[in-house]
Please model this.
Amino acid sequence: MWAIETRNLRKVFRPLLGGKPIVAVDNLNLHVPPGTVFGFLGPNGAGKTTTIQILIGNVYPTAGEAFVLGHRAGAIAAKRRLGFLPEKFQFHDFLTAEEFLRMHGRLAKMDGATLQKRIDETLELVGLAERRKSKIREFSKGMQQRIGLAQAIIHDPDLVILDEPTSALDPLGRRRVREVVQYLKERGKTVFLNSHLLSEVERSCDEVAIINKGRVIKQGALDELLVNRSVVSIELKRVEPRVLEAIGKVAQKVHPVDERRITAEVAHEDDVPELARAIVESGGALMGLQAHRETLEDLFIQAVEGEGK
Amino acid sequence: MGVIIALTLKEAIRRRAFLGTLIILVALYGLSFLPRAFKEAFGGSERQFELGVNLAVLFGVDIIKFFSAVLAILLCAGAITAEIERGYLAAILPRPLHRWELYLGKWLGVMLFSAVNATLWTAMLWASVAIQGEPRVEMWRALPYVLLYPALYGTLALALSSFLGASIASMFTVAAGAFAYFSDHFLRPIAAFFDVKLLQQIVWLSEWTLPMATLKRLVQAQVDAILPPGMDDAPPWGSEAVLRFLKPELQSLDVIYVGIYIAAALLVGLVIFWRRDVQ
Model:
């Protein structure tokens, strides 16, 4: 059973006063294995938030199906085992941190004794134990994000959906979120992480899906997607066809950037010296060469731009 | 649902709605002593004093009706769409509760707040005239019907708030109330006096659109006994049909119609909220 599964999921928003319908999600097929930290990536307007809203039951799909922990998305049985940190939220800031968590625990149908224990644990986990009696309105933006994270996990859910959890956080706050994600992973929970901070995703996630225009364009384990491939930035005096041909024999992909610069992808970093030799032997005037291991950002840009072409 | 009711009450307190409660309490207390102040300042018989107390009570009941409805509109109009837009419901909706629980929880929270307010205000009015030796039990008899005012307007505002923002939902609710008031107090006498069928139909329609006039008659039936002489008499003109139109008799089904209207408005709002996308 998948933690999250969507089958040909589609959502079309039709403006009330006429106008062109907006296809936010278009035949999206997604499979999130249980117990993984799953990164959900995509450019702005790709349909990530709409997909998440469908998964938590706030938005009804136009077509297709979505399942959360084996239950139809939005079903009470699914919500019982789901924790969610929204991207945009306004908490009831007249409550103290403890009252706020108690309210969410009760909404999650927790019993009194378990709830009190979980409040203590969760506040400790997000680093707000000492501010438990403070009103949320007195919290900084980062602390509000952390109390938001606490409400998402107060009822010890099996699946936690985090929508941009680190957007308002400083590096220390981001590290705290990483620790919480790690804590959840160690306890066998599934974390579904939507974030624009690709370096964060790369550090935390086991699997990713990249979506664009409402469709999954790449999905898989990070280890498999980012195999030892290296991206090489090459600067020449002038890009010539014979040089491109020589590079093409060594590199898997070649992207001319302008008249002087080329980006090439090689299967392994050991191929970089071979690439330099090929350029020189083909008569190319090599002015500079810089290789780095392919990052998630490279993969993301390549996938999204490749989709656009 | 209890958590949502408690949260709605806390939200009402946060929005200083209790200040409204206190201000009206003071206003009602002051109002009830006006007849005595007049008597002491300008003299007058005991009969005139009693009449003054009756008028103060009638006006007091009107104040309670009006302000309990206003508070209910203010609290209900921003309860759904405005809270979605502000992001208050973003973390609550994914919780394992049905949307109807959230909706009814909010409604019950506001109704509870309104009921406590109206009861407190009635108690204040009753106590302050009672200590002057003029207890008027009629206002307690009217209270169940007075409570229908916040129920009617609050439910309508909540139903509109399920798809409209706070200001537009309040605006439409107030506009519906204003139409019903205008139609009952101004159009009705004109339509009766000049016997204009079209105007009579508009008055009839307004009563179905928002049964405020029906509700007014239900309250009035309870305080009839203290109405000053001549205040509620039929005018000395017009046929029987015209007079019946001008002052319709209370039907036993009137209160049921008001109840059905409130239940229907509640249901419509609930269905809209249940079926709409929330983001």
About this structure: The CA atoms of residues 10 and 16 of chain B lie 10 Å apart.
